[in-house]
Write a structure and sequence with these properties.
This protein is an alpha/beta fold. It has 15 helices and 17 strands. A hairpin with a 2-residue loop joins strand 3 and strand 4. Helix 12 packs antiparallel against helix 13.
Length: 405
């Protein structure tokens, strides 16, 4: 049996007035995803357990079959796994966004999608200057920044302070005062000092002066969040018996989860983690991956990014591109190869009007060998709700996908 999972990050949404009260998924042309839903099972799964925030870290672990209450270590440790950062038992890691602050307000959680090359230079500068000149860490503590992709980076904290902190995801507080959204709790003063003192250093850096001259948003502050410690979870093979897996994504978070599952991470040229990603390349590489692996996961960030921009037309375009260049080629190839199953879904809602995530159960569709009876319905949020196939525990979806007959 061959298995494929396609995650359209943040695809589910609310009805949009400008679309005649249709959702972007309802408005998009998705013949291949509709075929998956009509010929197979269609339903909803609750990927955000009670007490968790609706982020791709929690929801991806959940939909892959790992109950967050048992296995979730925090977002940053998952991303750190992809960067090869070794964590000791007392180490803490934080997601470190490079953001744009203007007049003490968080203007952009991605600093205008600052490039990875620019991020590397800015973080190298902070590694040299921030701790030497500006920040007084507790005795024996050390901190270091690691470059990820674009605005998405990592900070490693080694010290005796237990970080019992509450940190706000920056994409949830765009347009709000920085002062009202700083970390709180035990250890927070260290983080606040790092964040606040990064601002005068980055504001005057040559890269940001150049970006301002080019009418781009500057990466003039760090934002720390998503903290956690070393993960402890079984591999996918140990948990489910699928011996060989591969993952395709441009996002460190998804690639880090894949590495923890002992899957191969396949790098695809042109995969950006943004709306300009090369969908066709991801589709081609996914088809190739199934020649050597039992399972392939393809993750596409673009619908989520478009919704965070508040751009409903870009979201529709992203959904249509995923359908045309990833779901279509995978479905055609798998049907010709023998026994197969394909799962298409999103990880969480990303609400375009609010430009942030939401916790409703997400629609999923799966088709292939032994998945009956067919729903006969196209994939939409409303259709998925009406089938009656409601999984209240989203981590049970994977077992449903692998063994349901």
């Amino acid at each position: 049996m061959k298995y494929a999972i396609v995650i359209a990050d943040g695809m589910a949404d609310y009805p949009q007035p400008e679309l005649g009260n249709k959702t972007p998924l309802e408005a998009a042309r998705t013949p291949h995803a509709d075929e998956v839903a009509r010929s197979g099972l269609l339903g909803v799964a609750q990927t955000v357990p009670k007490g968790f925030t609706p982020g791709s870290d929690v929801t991806t672990m959940c939909l892959l079959g790992y109950e967050p209450k048992r296995y979730y270590p925090g977002r940053a440790p998952l991303e750190a796994a992809n960067l090869g950062i070794e964590l000791g038992p007392e180490d803490w890691v934080f997601r470190c966004n490079l953001v744009t602050v203007r007049d003490s307000v968080l203007e952009d959680f991605s600093a205008g999608h600052v490039s990875t090359e620019e991020s590397a230079s800015l973080l190298d500068y902070l590694n040299d200057r921030l701790f030497a000149d500006c920040v007084h860490l507790p005795d024996g503590a050390t901190t270091r920044f690691f470059v990820g992709k674009s605005y998405r980076n990592i900070m490693l904290y080694k010290g005796s302070v237990k970080m019992e902190v509450r940190c706000m995801p920056p994409h949830d507080v765009v347009g709000q005062p920085v002062s009202k959204n700083l970390p709180s709790g035990k250890g927070s003063q260290v983080l606040i000092e790092l964040m606040e003192k990064s601002y005068p250093l980055l504001r005057e850096h040559g890269i940001n002066l150049k970006r301002l001259g080019e009418k781009k948003r500057p990466a003039n502050m760090i934002w720390l969040w998503g903290q956690g410690q070393r993960p402890n979870m079984p591999t996918f093979s140990e948990k489910y018996g699928v011996t060989s897996g591969a993952a395709i994504s441009a996002v460190d978070l998804i690639k880090g989860i894949a590495r923890l599952l002992d899957w191969e991470v396949i790098e695809v040229p042109g995969a950006t983690g943004y709306i300009d990603t090369d969908y066709a390349a991801k589709g081609r590489y996914a088809v190739e991956a199934l020649k050597d692996h039992d399972m392939v996961l393809v993750h596409v960030e673009a619908p989520d990014e478009a919704a965070h921009m508040g751009n409903v037309q870009e979201k529709i375009k992203a959904i249509e591109n995923i359908d045309a260049f990833i779901v279509g080629p995978l479905l055609e190839d798998m049907k010709s190869q023998g026994e197969y199953r394909l799962l298409y879904l999103c990880d969480h809602y990303t609400v375009t009007q609010r430009r942030t995530h939401s916790s409703e159960p997400v629609p999923f569709a799966m088709c292939g060998t032994g998945l009956v009876p067919p729903s006969g319905l196209a994939i939409t949020e409303a259709n998925a709700e009406k089938t009656g196939l409601h999984l209240k525990k989203g981590h049970e979806l994977m077992e449903h996908f692998l063994v349901q007959t």
